[in-house]
Amino acid sequence: MHKKYHITKCHMKTILLSLFILFIYHNNDGALSNTWSAYLLGREIRDIAISDNDVWCAAHLDGLYRLNRYDAATTYHITADSLDSDMVSAVEIDKEGILWVGTKDGIRSFDGISWTDYPESRVSEQVVKKASHLIEIDYDDYITCIAVDNSGGKWFGYYVQIVHFYNGEWETYNSTNTDFLDSFIYEITVDSLGRVWVGTAYDGVNYYYNDIWTTTMQDMRTLLFQSVLSICEDKNGIIWFGGPSGQAAIFNGVSYTEYPDFIDVQLKQDVSAGAADLNNVIWFGANDGVSRYNGNSWENYMEVCGLPLSEIKDIEVDKDNNKWFATNNGIRLLNDSPTSVNTQSFKFIFYESFPNPFNLQTTIEYSLPHNTHTTLTIYSITGQAVIVLKNEYQQAGNHSVTWNAAGMPSGLYFCTLKADGRSETRKMVVVR
């Protein structure tokens, strides 16, 4: 027996609107090249993790979704039956391909076959009570963010603490054993040098390197904001920070600089997501859309694919340079293949400094085949940036820079030249 279905005017409007959306988001031949697409509409996506073939999506109050990266319409929905909670807030994939998931009840991992729970990661009652004067805590074990460091260690951000998991050992950092982890953890990012950057609600940004925490509150006071919501690193080693009310800043290895032109003409809401793509274009997402910076100017995506109506929670870039945006209304995908680059045509020449070893000063020379943004930084043997000699857009040709090492102790130093995503390092020795 066949059922009869009646299509009302309201249903017809919904169908026509859906067809219109599909028409806009896809080309007539179904190709996604240089187009916007939308998936998981109606679901709040908090975080994204991308593997070779899959895009994992943390859906707040709706479990975990897996999209096929080449056919994102194919979804696999994982609910509380496997996760113990449908409130999924963070996802990350480690170097072994294991998926790590943060929920309101703590941490779980998935190796492709089975799930593992980690009760050791639970927040202690003592820490919760100490932080209760700062924020209202609904879920003590709620995970805000996850990052994997260069050694394979996992870092988990909570409302009130940070947990590091490495080689089966758990280590906790909070207000009981640090001077600054006394507020909400917004973001954890690991840069190319291995520094673990932590963005907080009230304590600015801090980083962990060589078993030492470094607080930057004094430096951050020179800026207009101490609440750091997003952190990313570009291909020249510059660290970018997003703050409240559309504010942005960078760290060049020595000092922090605010971007006043960004707040004047771009996003006005909290900058809660950031990423650098394969062309070294910086993408920032907020509650009022997306802006990108190509090295010379900012460009808005304010009226594309419904972004102005969506809060941007996360931005991730896959190996084909496609941009994936997690929003409070599903996933937005910008299919945008990287600009073709002939790597043989760009090979800067980085000469050995002279004299070397040296007592007071040495000359550093290099040659650029074309115009590009260049950074030239001196690092100590511990990996700390001593001085940034160049951080600017330079013309093609030969360049010479003198480093005066007066006041620097004897020892080994490293000089790193970065341009167009490439870097080379030379050793230098100061002798007193």
In brief:
With 432 residues, the chain is mainly beta.
Overall description:
It contains 5 helices and 35 strands. The chain starts with 8 loop residues before the first helix and ends with a strand. It has 2 domains: 32-334, YVTN repeat-like/Quinoprotein amine dehydrogenase (Methylamine Dehydrogenase, Chain H); 344-430, Immunoglobulin-like. Strands 1-28-27-26 form a 4-stranded antiparallel sheet. Strands 2-3-4-5 form a 4-stranded antiparallel sheet. The protein is mainly beta and 432 residues long. Helices cover 9% and strands 46% of the residues. The longest helix is centred in the N-terminal third of the chain and has 17 residues, at 9-25.
Overall structural class, as computed from helix and strand content, comes to mainly beta
Instruction: Let me know the average pLDDT.
Output: 78
CATH superfamily of the largest domain: YVTN repeat-like/Quinoprotein amine dehydrogenase
CATH topology of the largest domain: Methylamine Dehydrogenase, Chain H
Give the overall shape: globular
Residues in helix, %: under 10%
Instruction: Give the spatial strand order of the biggest sheet.
Output: 1-28-27-26
C-alpha Rg, in Å?
Answer: 24 Å
Strand count: 35
Q: What is the number of helical segments per DSSP (H or I, 4+ residues)?
A: 5
- State the low-pLDDT regions, or none: 1-33, 125-139, 338-346
Per CATH, the class of the largest domain reads Mainly Beta
Assembly state here? single chain
End-to-end Cα distance, whole Å, is 96 Å
CATH architecture of the largest domain: 7 Propeller
Fraction in beta strands: over 45%
Q: Major sheet, described briefly?
A: 4 strands, antiparallel
Q: How many discrete structural domains?
A: 2
